[in-house]
Amino acid sequence: MASKRFGLLQAVVVFVCLLGAVVDAQTLVKANDGTGLHVYFRTGWTAPYIHYNAGSGWTTSPGVKMTASSDSSFPVGLGWFKFDISGSSLEFVFNNGNGVWDNNNNANYKVSAAGTWSVTSTVSTPPTAAPTTTPVPAPAAVGATLVKPNDGTGVHVYFQSGWAAPYIHYSTGSTWTTSPGVKMTASTDSTYLAGLGWFKFDLAAPAAYLEFVFNNGNGAWDNNNNVNYKLNAAGTWTVISKVSVPPTTTPAPTPSTTPTPTTASPPTSAPTPRPTTTPIPTTVPPTGPCTNYNGLDSCQSGTQTTYPDSDETRRWQTPPRNATGWSEGFQDYRSLTGYAHVVYNSARTSATVTVRTNLRVDSSTATCSYTFNGATSSSATFAATSSLMADLNIKVVCSQGSSGEKWTLELDPVNFVWQANPVATPAGFEGGQKGAIVDLFGWPYADIEAECKDFLGKAGYLGVKINPPQESVLSDAWPQSGERNPWYFVYQPVSYRLYSRMGTRAQLRSMIQTCRANGVRVYADAVVNHMSGGGNDVSLHRNPSGSSCTYWGAKSSAKGSPYYTHNYQYALNTYTGARPALEFPAVPYGPTDFHCDRTLGSWNDALQLETGWLVGLTDLNTAKPYVRERIAQYFVDLLGIGFSGFRIDAMKHIGPTDTAAIMGLLSTYMGGSYPSDFIMWGEIIMGGEAQLLACNENSGYNFYKGLDAKYAAAGISATDIAKLKIWSSDYPKEMPICGSWILPASRFVIQNDDHDQQNPDSTSRDMGDKGSILIKAKNVNIHRGFEVQLFTRTDADWKIRVVLSSYTWFPNGAAGFPDGLSDCNNGFDASSGQTCTRSVPYEKAFRAGSCGYTVEDFAGGKYTRVHRDMSIVNAMRGFVGLGSVTASQVGITGSC
Asked: Hey, which residues are catalytic here?
């Protein structure tokens, strides 16, 4: 909530709390003496502001700048500031004037009597001792070693490199030399032998500061891993290259003269070093005809997991409105991003909606207005009650007077839980906590809506799970391995907007309402461990492939939102002047919201499991408070539009600590508890790592008792913890994987085959002869038997059981959804010169009155409709205490 986000100025973060009791974070230190109300605030901020409401409304953000304390009881050297006001009550929050807020963990600070009050910040760390009068030292040296103190002759830099003729490109504090800089001379010092690659550069006194980078004069640069080299005093300094390997032995002398330096042209885009005190990463132009920036954003050590705050300077990459490359879906994301933050009261009959916006410019120089369903005001907060049964439409307009610029942000509609149609709940469903869920894999929303009306409700299914509803990667012009839009693109999100391959937000809303009206709950597949794959974004890319160079272009998405990754990039971003960085403006996420780029190479290493990039997917830093809050708010949006719960994809890679924190926030935002029929199940695939993940609760990365303890610590009640389940990857062959039920079986979700197992090379689960993958085994009778067994077995009390109803694949590997968006012959864009070779023609998913197992001899691209098989239907009905039915009673026509 008050996470440190350099370069990202939050225009509004004030949250008006409607829940619970006020936290006593403020202390009365002196009773009313008739002089009014006095607030002393201790903080690490140098110029804090107080944003307050004395009863007649809130001040304009960021509020009133506080004054340094002059009271010896509250010494300014220990971070104390003061604010005085007449009156006897006050509600207030603090901020640093630059978008970072302290709002008492979302409860605001409140005092109800005049007097002197003190508050110590829980967001910024105050100084622990008053500063001394020692002069402020010069900026720290970076990447260089002082080997000889100042002797009055100036600055001397020795550089060891494998380059034959290195150059130094430098600044002494104002401007930089012209690229490539000054050619260094071979060292003549016996301590730094020229034969071992040492070169020298001298800068005469009184020079005492230098910021610099090196290059070979032909486009290869060494810039200290993007932060430049810096020295802070005169003297003799050494630097050993991180880019070119120096010689390890002195070569034998030869009669030849010093080689002539290369005459190749300098790079067309030299680094942009910054002689400022704020370290802005320097971009090294890639060399060669097919090189790229790969590796520059990889983790630089085995323990690094995050990106430096300075990477936030690479944010704001989206083209401005109407510029080259801009499209309607980009809105004004170049300068303005944001989202709606929703918090319910405990009865979930009202909610506070706060628009949280981020500005590229200094927020104090901009003015914003907020429009809620046509009514415009300066307040970013809207109070919704259960009388609101329509969408809440939100529009933000911000302008900067000094530049005359104006930006508009249109948010997606907000819906609320009280707007959802009621769902009929037979007694056997245990209030929505028991039943069968059909996973309609690859079904568009319109077809699911029809299926709910025609069959699912009559059959007695508890609910239907759909593919991830969030906006994800799509491309009609750039196939992947010959496939137009392979199925796994829906597991590469680009935002949390509810526009997907399966349909629009309006179609999703209509489908959910129809399904609920027919007694069928809807569950989402939620992808929150990561965003899109590295190299899948709106930019151009290249990568060497043997002796050739592979190029690919921009991908899009279901709603056309922009998104950026750093992988396989080779050109500077036009608007930041830096190499591309991770950014998903429609969320919004920026560079420091992700873990640094690390290959996931071990399934038994907790650090790699949690911070590694799973199959190259951009891994979110879910330890960061803002990321946790944003994910929890996505979950709030899912419940608001009518979902009854969700599966969390790749939860194993989010980790137990972050999972518990996110689910705790969801409980808070939903009014302090989950809805009575809510369920969540997390994907925890395990095998040989079961001790780490399940059996040893003290492993430090445990999803059984260890996670439950973290849930409880996050304020989740025992009743609600029972609703948080784990997908049983050990079913049916290895359960219970620890040899006994560490958690009761009711906490696990079971199913026969799942969508990941359909991949030809999948090793995600070993079912042996205890289960069957329909589209691989191609044996209907055996598969039907295992699906029936899913509901008839009574050896454990599993409450939620899932049936996969998918589609068949083609022998050549074509596996896109048969929804028409993977068809090579209709809708493929060949203008980029690409070839689509693995086509999946369109087939309508909904077929009124259909039988089950419509596999048509397992021809490719046929929806299987497993859930319509009457043997499975009646086994499922018996499981929830419903009587048997005939095919005609549930709408199946003809002979099956």
From this structure: 649, 683
